[in-house]
Amino acid sequence: MISRLLLLLLIACASPAMASRIQLTNAESTGAPGKFASAEIRREAAASGMTIGEDAEAPSITLSVDKDAKAAPQSYQIRVRNSGGRRVIEVTGADTVGVMYGGLDVAEAIRTGTLDSLKDYEKSPHIAKRGIKFNIPLDLRTPSYTDCSDAAQANIPEVWEREFWIDYLDAMARHRYNVLSLWSLHPFPSMVKVPEFPEVALDDVWRTRIKLDDQFSFAGNDMVRPEMLADYEVVKRMTIDEKIEFWRWVMQQAADRGITIYVFTWNVFTFGAEGKHGITNDMGNEITKKYFRATIREMVKTYPLLGGMGITAGEGMPHDMDSKVKEAWLWDTYGEGVRDALKSEPQREFNMIHRFHWTAQSDILDAFKDYPGTFDFSFKYSVAHMYSITKPPFIQPLLENIAPGRRTWLTVRNDDIYSFRFGDPAYIREYVLNMPPQDKMAGFYMGPDGYCWGRDFLERNPTTGKRPLVMEKQWYSFMLVGRLAYDPSLPDSHFERALASRHPDVSSEQLFRALQGASQVMPLTTRFFWGDIDLKWYPEACLCHRLSKGQGFYTVKHFMEGSAMPGASVLCIRDWRARLNARQPMTETTPLEIATALDGAAAETFAAIAELRNTARDDRELQKTIHDCEALGWLGNYYAAKIRGACALALFDSTGDSFEHDSAIRHLNDALSHWKAYAAIRDAQYVPALYNRVGYVDVTALTEKVATDIDIARNWKPYSLKDDGKRSGSEKGFRQ
Q: Are the CB atoms for 679 and 635 separated by under 8 Å?
């Protein structure tokens, strides 16, 4: 890792030309992406005190496109030479997106003080399609799955603001994301007009004023309740024509940054349309089928820059229905709707992505055999927990049985970390390198179902003005995933320089260590204690939705009864105890080794932030980052002590040994102390909030639940822990 002193020396030794003036030439062939890169170079130059203009001696930067048929899309090369005593940096892209990425490299070099050390290199994408999954809260009447939460409700007016999308798409491009997937149960009334069903299109943007609860159905069928419609506010006045113009503008802004937008739906939902023209949720209703077919046709025709759609035979269909029937309905609506639209422009490429969710591959392919374009699948790669292990096993049956010539997208769900900043490039690099090969993987999109990735509304004491985007607040974690997905060879020193340029007054080495140490807490904990979907396991609060498994907070008893993540090579407590009592070898990681690793990650974090505190006083963002790291350190200590307490209690259960009983109580007292420290740090920075998948979360209030672990241990009777041999698995996700 590069030291702060070395970094400062590099910057200090930069040539006078770099510090004063550069010349920038952007060829017209680079298009809108090239203009974006040029603007980024100018912005970083201005921030670094440089001016841009004609100067025979100043370094020259040129951006151009050379459409070499052999070069991969999005690839580029940088060539550095001396010409007539001046330094010339030539950025050449295989296409406009490639030159944009090369130009962004130059902008980054200016920001990090490394422009003078640039050398010749070439880059091409490791993963061609790198996306964001955004459950978009459009309107009270056209909700997403995330909408019954505080964050989504706060973001309804935000997603209709141009400033929001400029910031969002700029950040995506800088981090090398090129796909934006917008997920909604039924977005169409907020986005299109359908001539055959004129009453469906919605003017204005609504939001309910009633306080939401955690009683919403996991199937999504009650996302719009009568009482919500009875008490609403109009947060923006817009006609449907203005809405269409707005989304066309958003898609153009995305295209100008090399980003393709997809719209994803769950099915069958008719929010905003139900009750109009005879439309219902009934799959057997011919009017509903005609409505969907016409609506899909209009979506495709209304938005020429829409890259495709994602569909699901999902929660809105009867769970026990034959998947052939589900797929026939989807073809008759979505498939035929796309075909209707493309009759007038058969040359247009409109992609379809079908999620593997409660349906079978053979039935999907049979139904969509005549689809007029690229047809891919989608699979929940780590189910809901990308921060668990770097090579999740769940996709293996799909890879072995996927139809020849077909590929799948990876839905990379991040339902582990909503509040905190993440930063472990080693983990992300390995995660990316373990993804399936390109002949079976179309790309990925990353995002949560349990939180809204719009503007951040968790902070207790925000600065004045607009709230930052989650992507701005957690810029480092988004940078790691996007950049390493494009180029996993980027070394840790690259990201340390990024931290140094963001926070120049502190040791970038210590900041890198603090973020990396803190970021190990979630993966270590989740691979030991597994709940596959988000409503079963929220590690920030040791919680599941109280309606999903009947308990809410996970006690020490649940830890003893719990299962480790499939494929993680970690022993759960029952298996560990059985091997210990039988004196069998421990060939997998034991619970106590997980606890030791958690304490080690916390110790590394605390040691690093101790070096940062004194110099962070004038950097508010850095202070918040340090608080995040400290909170995660205490959370790591909590889980370590809880695991040790659960192990000791499990041994007391099988032996009656009072030493183990006392040890369990001691460890759980330690856990309570650690939780109190965690809650104090976390809740000084973040407010309690209602989340759509785990309910209302108040970490400080949960302290009472944490304390009950001590009573559970104190009152435990030997031989109470039963083992029926069952272990938690995961939803299958794929059917042949």
A: no
